[in-house]
Amino acid sequence: MVSAVATRDPRVLALRVGPVSARIRTRSAVVIGLLGAAALGTMLLALTVGRGGLEPGSILYALTPDASKADRLVFEWRGSRALAAIVFGACLGVSGAIFQTVTRNPLGSPDVIGLNAGSYAGVVAVISLGGIGFTAMAVGSITGGLVAAAAVYLLAFKQGVNGFRLIIVGIAVGAVLTSLTSWFSVKSDLDVALRAAIWGAGSLNGTRWEVLAAAGGLALVTALALPHVARVLPQLALGDDAASSLGLRLEPTKALLVVVGVVLSALVTAVTGPIQFIALAAPQIARRLVTPGGGSGPDVVGSALVGAVLLGTADLLAQYALPGTTVPVGAVTVVLGGVYLVWLLFRESGRS
Prior knowledge:
The structure is a single chain. This protein has about 350 residues and is mainly alpha-helical. It has a single domain, classed as ABC transporter involved in vitamin B12 uptake, BtuC (Orthogonal Bundle), CATH 1.10.3470. Helix content is about 70%, strand content about 5%. It has 13 helices and three strands. The chain has helices at about 25-50, 70-105, 115-130, 135-155, 165-185, 190-200, 210-225, 225-235, 240-245, 250-270, 280-290, 300-320, 330-350, and strands spanning about 1-5, 10-15, 20-25. Strands 1-2-3 form a three-stranded antiparallel sheet. A hairpin with a 2-residue loop joins strand 2 and strand 3 (about 20-25). The protein is globular. Belongs to the binding-protein-dependent transport system permease family. FecCD subfamily. This is Iron-enterobactin ABC transporter permease. Keywords: Cell membrane, Membrane, Transmembrane, Transmembrane helix, Transport.
């Protein structure tokens, strides 16, 4: 049974679910509810807009045995893509929140510090060896991401990990890995290079239910660590000294967070190819919406929902912004990410 009890502070509610209780700010609860509604709205739009879309009243009917074959085909094709945008956007949002907290820098996302480049290189290696299917791609992507993370971590380690040094090392490692994959594209067979190039554009086209189920299952297993992640991120955001004084074991905790973050981002890369911007922007937007004034660190739930809304919206733009043309969602997020990154750099330079 869920119950909400007012506290002495009108801005805070005490929530209780059985024996578990938590305190949550009223503003945070409202914003998270609105973000959840927005994520659901992008799914509904993905199912209904455009030629051949479902009527709003036919969405639930399309799931029943009595639905027409046409409605079921539309739901089969559009539903998996719409749900994938929400699930993968949430994965990228959480991954970005983790790495921005570990590095204590708004640029500390997996697409900036070289981890996506590692996942990309891992999948390219799998493709070059003839690997096909989600399992092979996932193994290559996660392995490549973890190897890149280990390289960045070890090269940046000097009596602990400094966030700025980790970002600089990550950019360098990412550049090396990107050069290696470019060299592969030049030297490999045309068919293999073409497969890698198409996959590397970053797209949700052709996301099938069986692949989404496998990816969602792995994401769900990883999500079991999220309650711990949500508990330690605010402590890490206070700084290493403060976190240590609270009894947090810094390096083992950071290592666990890196593994969770890499798995979440690499999982998306394995299915869609590299998608930029979402992991970079979602935690920052969530912090401003959910915890105005900055708070003590990125909100995990807020980051996940903002990531879902961003990727869902970007995929709608990819499908319908240019009439008669569908572009990879990765191209849309790169454009949005470039604008956001320029704004962020100007903002940070204005503070210094």
